[in-house]
Amino acid sequence: MVYGYDDTGYYFSGPMCNRGKGPKPWQELADTDIGLLEMYNVKIGKAADDTLTVKEALEFALEFAESPKKWIHPKYKSGLAGYDNWIQAVDRGIFNTHGMAYNSALWAECRNLASHFLKEASQRLNGKAGPLLEKASEIYSSISENLQKLARLYPFPPVPKSKDRKREQEALGHLKKARQVEEAGLESLNKIIDIL
């Protein structure tokens, strides 16, 4: 994630960002190990109240979890269906090590940020939704922890290793646990939206 820039280049946070000093030079911005670059910008807009902001964010998360065509590429899935695909690939030993390492790190970070968002929302909204938001924050923290364990098994950038069925079985356990907790997380988001 680009979080800033200066005359030299861009500053990042996320996987592999500690591999060098200083910013990523301007001319190397699209030079990545994954061959993909997405850039978005954020503009100042009219501020919505906290309740509406949280409700819309949670509605988006639930929509995204349903693999909508406008967000998810063909042959890919998100949400629980994404976990199912991932689990099946690991179980059958047909996963891509690069994809395993990248997605583990990426989704662990995303779930960690979701936990922080929900924690802040619980403090800002309090009221009836406060305790549910606090619980949801704990759920997403647990998901992140399971995905971080997976990322430690398959660090990014990937290190070429021979097939290791024991490591794959351990990875499968972390994925299944993350999926189970994710299901509870999605249910909690639905309950929060109902209250909001």
Structure characterization notes:
The protein is mainly α and 196 residues long. The protein has five helices and three strands, in the order E-E-E-H-H-H-H-H. The protein has helices at residues 50-64, 79-92, 97-125, 129-153, 165-195, and strands at 2-5, 9-12, 24-25. A hairpin with a 3-residue loop joins strand 1 (2-5) and strand 2 (9-12). Helix 1 (50-64) packs across helix 5 (165-195). The chain is globular.
What layout of secondary structure does this protein have?
Elements lengths: L1 E4 L3 E4 L11 E2 L24 H15 L14 H14 L4 H29 L3 H25 L11 H31 L1
Antiparallel strand pairs: 1-2, 2-3
Class by alpha and beta content: mainly alpha
Average the pLDDT over all residues and give the rounded result: 90
Topology pattern, helix = H, strand = E: EEEHHHHH
Characterize the main sheet. Answer: 3 strands, antiparallel
Radius of gyration: 18 Å
Instruction: State the helicity in percent bands.
Output: 55-70%
- What count of structural domains? 2
How many helices? The count is: 5
List keywords for this structure.
about 200 residues, mainly alpha, 2 domains, 3-stranded antiparallel sheet, 5 helices, about 60% helix
Q: Brief description of this entry?
A:
With 196 residues, the chain is mainly alpha-helical. 58% of the residues lie in helices and 5% in strands.
